[in-house]
Amino acid sequence: MRPEIRPDTSAASTTLLAYALALKHVASSGAVDQPLLGKNLALICAREGPDAELFRKAGSALGARVTVLRPTLGDSSSLAEIEQTARVLGRLYDGVECQGLEPRLVQQMRAAADVPIFDAVASMEHPSAHLDAQLGGTDQQGNRLFIVQAILMETIL
After folding, report:
1. Does 79 score more than 60 pLDDT?
2. pLDDT, average across residues 63-72
3. Number of DSSP helices (H) and strands (E) in the chain, helices first
4. DSSP helix/strand/coil, 73
5. pTM of the model
6. Domains of the chain, CATH where assigned
């Protein structure tokens, strides 16, 4: 299992920025690059909002299929149930984005899954959000898209 990329080190930030800048360059040239073609991503969220839309758009633009799932696990879920769910998700998907789930639950899923389990990677509260400004330009939403895509590529490829 690969852990989620946490850009709290300069090396991780540099790598993510390099991926994001490359993606931005490809997009600005009009070329279509879909390195996640054939990959399946799950988006677990209670309701869809801007963060869910950003994750869906980021994955789809890279060629992945993104499936939205409603959360069925919660505080009353046993560790065995959480681990079993994570293992099943790992068989079905190449990566799972969790939005609005308790951090403890996401950590337990991450420990049991064989695929990356993200904790609100498309959120402005994610540690990678500060990297947007370093991509330049005025389109912060577009820059955020490239950062999320870079995280997906770094962890799934």
Report:
1. yes
2. 97
3. 5, 4
4. coil
5. 0.88
6. 10-156 (3.40.50.1370)
